[in-house]
Specification:
This protein is an alpha/beta fold. The protein is 27% helix and 18% strand.
Length: 507
Amino acid sequence: MDGIESRYEIPRTAEFLRARAYTRVALQFPDELLKDAAAVARALRRELGGGTKLYVMADTAYNSCCVDEVGASHIDAQCVVHYGHSCMSPTSNLPAFFVFGKAPLDISACCRSLLDCLRESNKPILVLCGLEYAYALDDLKGASVELCKSDSCNSEIQYAEDLCSEMNPSTSPTAEKQFPQPNGSTHNDDLSLHSDDVTTFVNSCCNVEGNTRKYNLGGLTWGISINEKMEDYLLYWIGQDNSAFANIALTFNKCDIVRYDTIANQLSRDVSHLMKILRRRYYLVEKAKDANIIGILVGTLGVAGYLNIIEQMKDLIKAAGKKSYTLVMGRPNSAKLANFPECEVFVYVSCAQTALLDSKEFLAPVITPFEAVLAFSRGREWTGEYLLDFKELITSEKPEVGSKSEEARFSFIKGGYVEDDCPQDDEENSVTSLALADVTEKALSIRNQNNDAILYQGGANSAIEYLKARSYRGLTGEYQGPVPDSVLIGRAGRAAGYSNEKTNSSQ
């Protein structure tokens, strides 16, 4: 039990809950930590006494890295204690306390690897890590300083810090407030996300304060001189090749990056797979420009500002002369999205570390809000900058409907560069062989997957027009032509007594 109390920080968690007089607390565990949930709840109950009710949440509504405010609301929780990996996305309604855990780290081996990078590189080093290793940064810093002194090398190493372990909710992405506590008071301390020295980080990855450029990303914070750029540093990541690392690597894709594998205790310099992801995202942006009907996938109901970005995406799509539909379906997959074949592209509104949804197996591509801004805004070009956090895109300004600008771009439908604002003429003979081959290949692949697949008849500007163009309309019973053999006719009538169901005369 001593291991449980230390690993899950039972005394510190109990102190946090007692200080704020919370009586209904939700404990959120990811799947890999569920085995310890009962032991953690028992240990907390012993510390808190019988006045606090604890509820264990397991299967989260969306992503386990985000605070599950939807699940916590079912038991009227006053606070959520989040265990394990977290994206540290701001909450909307509930305060949260984070226990990241303490993953094992060989300090001496990591320190030697860090100094090897320092000797080989002509750049200063910025050390970043997964939040589960943040506890060891002070020890690593002390060991590297001592080793530098004994080795007579110049120490140009800077360390990031974990931003906070407590979070108060925000009702809007642009205005922060103190959250009222159960006893009627408000609490704000040095660890709170909304304390005076941290509030400026909420709306932007980078902020300038005096002569320092401060960064906040994925729960980590660091600062560099205003005369320096991130490209001047070698980024040294401690941890696994996961979504947190991808968030860092893609956001700072112009920087030199190395990763220290804490399991194998060796350095990895190959991040080419992440650069391939970046190139594919650019391809999806270009493909999304040809879409006419866009589905907005709601991938979170708790991250602060998600309603604002959804409304902004609607305005953006409308200004581009396209139609949008908002879909709430929990965790999206290919089967769920296949129910909306009229949508030619989906915009996934989610936290930064789950925004990159792999859509290779989907019928339609899935893009991020940042990619949607690039695809649907007139005259926008990709400069290489990449953002995964949608809060940095939120603005109070609405795009003008029908705005015009001259822009030549590559169309995957036309198979060449086109002018968006030029009127479409009837010269369909200009369609190249590339476009014809692409359309033919897609049609054959869909046909081979299901011989009874619904054929799309003609162009549609809305879901209603798309439904009318279908050869078979499902539950309405209205169809054109024979019902496919694979369709099974269900029962008719009410559940109390179907029309083809035999009644029991003895009842």
